[in-house]
Design goal:
The structure is a single chain. With about 450 residues, this protein is α+β, with helices and mostly antiparallel strands. It is built from 15 helices and 15 strands. It has a five-stranded mixed β-sheet, sandwiched between helices. A four-stranded antiparallel β-sheet has the order 10-11-9-15, sandwiched between helices. Strands 6-7-8 form a three-stranded mixed β-sheet, with no helix packed on it. Strand 10 (about 315-325) and strand 11 (about 330-335) form a beta hairpin. Helix 6 (about 145-160) packs across helix 7 and helix 7 crosses helix 8.
Length: about 450
């Protein structure tokens, strides 16, 4: 028995599980239809997503769409759809490209999403109107074998940390996994092909649409103006390629079911950092009351903004990680240094440009010596504005370009020693001893 067949035995839902999930989905659809009928709404109900396609894993989410006639105003569609979802599921309003309700039904997580019954997926009214077409497409292009192959790719992606198009994962959606397996004809074929990918790879299952930018482009077979892989970040794209190369050399169940990693101790972390002479700084903010996915987008923005600021002041970021708890946003940076020299070399204009006169005038009485020529430019030894990383961040973080809902006044900083003592060891292990899940 091949490794892939062994994995399938573990991940393929049993006939009993499948029957229970389908039964739950049908009961939910009936409950939704009953609600709509009681309220005299002329709205269709459709099960979409992995359960409808037969590509689901154990304990799947249910995706049920409320399909409104095109003539209904969009604001009415959203209002009625959200109210129906809240009444039926008592769930939470979610806002991605499109508002919907997330809740529970008989133990399964449910997304109840309003959309329009468009007849042409290239002429959308709302962002999710093409989803029913996705469901129909996958059903029409797969059989039992290919659906199992899709399951393999999904679990592989999940195992390497690349599954999901959510803002924190920035990876491969379920639909992207499905279309890749359909295009390449199976899991192993997809892995072999991906091991040879380069940045900018372009895939078209049906028609090729307009030129698009991104680490990869997969033209949506139901709407070629859309890139199915638009959420894939360059790092997630590269991780998948690396995992495929490694899997082909040495197939192992760790790619599908990575072992849980034990975090390093404080002493081990201190030795790692001390051995390479790096320094740590932690930036924390109070967690705002914002939708989780939207907040993760802001966390990435904040992380990049602070890293740019650290680099611009010569602290030089080696690596960064982040986490979110119930009350805090935590960003940890490994730096080349956390204290700088008192002075630095300030590079001015070339000697022959007109502005050199004002440079000379400004610096002629400089405390650390007058201007000098180096490589054809005026230079001067100047005093730094900030010498310590904490001093700089307290002064500059608020104007660094952090996420709009993250409140700079709530910022707390931890220096090197306090970071090693107070920050979670799993997060510091990820920072100081990064390993791919399949290498643990």
């Amino acid at each position: 028995m091949s490794l892939e067949e062994k994995v399938l035995q573990r991940i393929r839902p049993s006939e009993k599980e499948t029957a229970e999930i389908i039964s739950t989905a049908e009961r939910l659809k009936e409950k939704v239809r009953s609600y709509l009928s009681k309220n005299e709404y002329d709205i269709g109900v459709m099960l979409v997503g992995s359960v409808a396609k037969g590509t689901f894993l154990s304990d799947p989410d249910l995706d049920v769409f409320l399909i409104f006639p095109e003539k209904v105003p969009k604001q009415d569609m959203e209002r009625i759809g959200l109210t129906a979802g809240e009444d039926i599921l008592q769930g939470e309003r979610m806002y991605a490209e499109h508002p919907y309700i997330r809740g529970k039904f008989d133990g399964l997580s449910v997304d109840l999403v309003p959309c329009f019954a468009v007849t042409d997926p290239s002429k959308l009214i709302s962002a999710v109107d093409r989803t029913p077409f996705h469901t129909d497409y996958v059903i029409s292009r797969t059989d039992g074998r290919l659906r199992d192959e899709i399951r393999l790719l999904k679990v592989f992606m999940r195992g390497i940390g690349a599954y999901g198009a959510e803002p924190n994962t920035r990876g491969f959606s379920g639909y992207l996994c499905e279309t890749l397996v359909i295009f390449y004809g199976g899991f192993l074929n997809t892995v072999k092909a991906a091991s040879e990918w380069r940045e900018g790879v372009s895939i078209a299952l049906e028609k090729k649409g307009p030129a698009m930018l991104g680490p990869m482009v997969l033209y949506d077979p139901v709407d070629p103006k859309r890139n199915v892989a638009s959420a894939v970040h360059i790092d997630t794209f590269a991780t998948f390629i690396a995992a495929c190369k490694s899997y082909l050399v040495s197939p192992n169940e760790k790619f599908f079911f990575p072992p849980e990693r034990s975090p390093l101790t404080e002493n081990e972390l201190r030795e790692l950092s001390g051995g390479r002479g790096s320094r740590l700084v932690t930036v924390m903010f109070d967690r705002p009351d914002v939708n989780r996915d939207n907040l993760y987008s802001q966390i990435w923005k904040t992380r990049y903004a602070i890293a740019r600021k650290l680099d611009s002041y010569d602290f030089t970021v080696l690596r960064a990680v982040h986490d979110m708890t119930r009350t805090k946003i935590i960003l940890v940076f490994e730096l080349e240094r956390d204290v700088l020299s008192k002075t630095f070399k300030h590079i001015g204009p070339p000697v022959w440009v007109r502005s050199s006169a004002s440079f000379l005038e400004k610096w002629k009485n400089n405390e650390y010596g007058g201007p000098f020529i180096d490589e054809g430019q005026w230079n001067v030894v100047a005093e730094r504005r900030h010498r310590s990383v904490t001093e700089m961040l307290y002064d500059e973080a608020a104007v660094a370009g952090i996420g709009r809902d993250i409140i700079p006044e709530t910022m707390e900083l931890l220096g090197h020693d306090d970071t090693l003592t107070s920050v979670g060891k799993d997060l510091l292990t990820e920072l100081l001893d990064p390993k791919h899940p399949w290498d643990v």
